[in-house]
Amino acid sequence: MALTVVYASATGHVVGALARPGPAASAPPDPAALVGRALPLRVALGAGRTAVLPLHAGELASASVDDEPAVFADPLAFGVDLSADGRPKPVLPRLAAWTGGGLALAADGLTVTVPLAPVRAARIVVLVSGGQDTHVLAGEIPAGRDRVTLPLALAEGGTHGVLVLVTGWAGRLEKARVA
Fold first, then answer.
1. 70: phi > 0 → left, psi -120 to 50 → alpha, else beta; which?
2. Which of 60, 110, 123, 124 has the lowest CB atom count within 10 Å?
3. Distance CA 126, CA 124 (A)
4. Cα three-residue angle 67-63-22, rounded to 5 degrees
5. pLDDT in tens, 80-111
6. What is the pLDDT of residues 28-81, one digit of tens each?
7. What whole-number distance in Å separates Cα of residue 103 and Cα of residue 166?
8. What is the 3-state secondary structure (H, E, C) of the chain?
9. CA separation (Å) from 143 to 101, 114, 151, 154?
10. In terms of Cα–Cα distance, which of 87, 36, 94, 27 is closest to 60?
């Protein structure tokens, strides 16, 4: 068996994993062959409602990696590092834990605060559900700063599904209410 992961190419976050028959060194399939046009991530919003946040196949990559059973239970806790030649390294690093707080959704934007300021600028990708649409936000947290506010227009009081991927930190997939 070989472990294959699908990851967000912009940040390296693992978003899915599967065991495939065959040798571990075999080339992984194209992400679109694994997920179709998009990989839907779901967030329960309450009252029987679910938000679907699709990660489009063009924003994903795949890699054959060393066995890591924990990636099946919590894929967003792992990342894919690239070598100097741009190839995925076989070992999946566990990303820094980041739970509770740190996300402030407002009618005019989303403020993301990480527990420690990064030494180098950290890339950030955010998906926010919005009815039939998904808002895709991208930016970076500058070196030496612990937060960034990404502009977004939402109605006050609504509840949304949010996926936050910050380089080096475990991904967050949760519901958030507009304050």
1. alpha
2. 123
3. 7
4. 60
5. 999 999 999 999 999 999 877 899 999 999 99
6. 889 999 999 999 999 999 999 999 999 999 999 999 999 999 999 999 999 999
7. 12
8. CEEEEEEECCCCEEEEEEEECCCCCCCCCCHHHHHCCEEEEEEEEECCEEEEEEEEHHHEEEEEECCCCHHHHCHHHEECCECCCCCECCCCCECECCCCCCEEEECCEEEEECCCCCCCCEEEEEEEEECCEEEEEEEEECCCCCEEEEECCCCCCCEEEEEEEECCECCEEEEEECC
9. 21, 12, 20, 28
10. 36
Q: Write the single-letter amino acid at 11.
A: T
